[in-house]
Amino acid sequence: MKSNPVADEKQFVNLLISWISRQTGTPTRNGVEETAQKLADIYEFKTNLEPVITEALTAVDTQMGAGISLVDVETPHDDKWVSKREDIHSIYSNAYEDYLKGEGWAPPVIQSLSDVSARILGHLQDPNNEGDWDRRGLVIGHVQSGKTANYMGVIAKAADAGYKFIIIIAGIHNNLRKQTQERVDEGFVGRSSEPGNHTNVGVGANKDYPHPATLTNIHQDFNKNTAAQSGWQINDFTKPIILVIKKNVRTLDSLYNWLRDMNAQGHGRISDVPMLMIDDEADHASINTNREDIDPTRTNAMIRKILRLFAKSCYVGYTATPFANIFINPESYGDEEVHKELFPRDFIYCLDPPSTYFGPERVFVDEDDGADAILEPITDCENYLPQAHKNYYEIPDLPPSLYRAIDQFIVARAIRNLRGHVNKHCSMMINVSRFVVVQQSVRNLISVYLKKMREAVKANYKMPDAVADHNEYMRALKERFSGDYKSCSADWRDVKKELFAIFDHLHIYTINSRSDEVLNYKKYEQEGYGLTAIAIGGLSLSRGLTIEGL
Predict the structure, then answer these.
(1) Cα atoms found within 13 Å of the Cα of residue 210, Cβ hemisphere only
(2) Tell me, what DSSP letter sits at residue 204?
(3) What is the rounded end-to-end Cα distance, in angstroms, of the chain?
(4) Residue 342 and residue 304: Cα distance in Å, rounded?
(5) CA 135/CA 125 separation, integer angstroms
(6) What is the pTM of this model?
């Protein structure tokens, strides 16, 4: 096997999942353990097998429901058009599903994702239909529950069906656009969009894969001048074109002008190119917040103008908080250029989360694992960082509860490492202010705290408790272990020995519009490490950015 520990473990888990999935009956844990040991001997896999076996069994046992849809039955539309068309070859969708299999997704979950994506595609228009048409829809999913994977599946199936121009509007922040571009590169384009390094990735591992075209990359949003210099027009491509853009007026305006100047034909419209627009975080910035009797907000207007350029278009918003979208007035302001509002008049589809999803129901409703066991009330913050504070607020220090949470995170990471999760990502999210300056102050205080903790751990992690307990940082970590993790199977002596290794790959990230720090989990996977990350931010953390290993 390869020398990269993260890749080795992922490959081994996939082998085990594949074996379990092929069994006709329900495999026993003993049987899985025996098979895992045999495979480990064959492939010379030396890592602890226990977490690998647990991960494989969990993946196979994970289920996803079909979800439920609300459809306008008065609109003439055949939801079964996908199954009726015999000319659809599932090239892109099959490649995407194979890619997910390689990422460790269990076959039942992949099949469920495929089925749901097909149902959502059925709610769109058949791209082969003649005449002018447009459809508006909304997909609702839980926070951090796989919305991106879902719309990637929809995009792949839409491309197979004949949608030629696909736009993903990936929120208002650069980090989310970059993360989405990376996922599109791996799950659809099949080629890295890193300038000067267009190696095949993800679905592109198959040398015969028909790579779609893209006019954006991980570093650069859509730019009219760059697109114009390429000399490309939509009809120049026999394969689909996809763009991942930020929800930014300047970017939307550049795209609109390029589409109009380079591609519009009779009556200033693009008549023969079926277009699909995916609006991620559709409740944010896309909504017209002006009064109905005046012009719409610029972002809202630009999205509608781009849709209006195409004679054949579908708009699908994705969000976990749909309230603003469903309260759009479908009859509100619109002229010939701006056209119809973004109200999801044709369908609303509610996704089911996977059975392993840990969300609000587990926290607030589940009687066996509810709020008393999970939530910790914070009562000490007002004197340090009031809930209502302004920009440039000077923080005297961090609340003791936040320092305690950091201690808990460090101890939890040590316990996970002891359980064999060294190659897994582990993240902590700190979202206490929407102001960039305050976020930086929080980061500075945490950085000082972790530096002192690292020095304390380095000096004491091999010392007996009689010595180590004299250090306030070691004493705090021990108190967190005995107070919060006493029911786990680990022993403090083992946890203490594991503490020092954590700091080798522990990094603090400030995630906001002014930061150039990138929370790049892939980079660490490629280097063979699991990242331990503390992410500090505000709105950027609240809007679609995936934080792995929370």
Answers:
(1) 14
(2) G
(3) 29
(4) 7
(5) 7
(6) 0.82
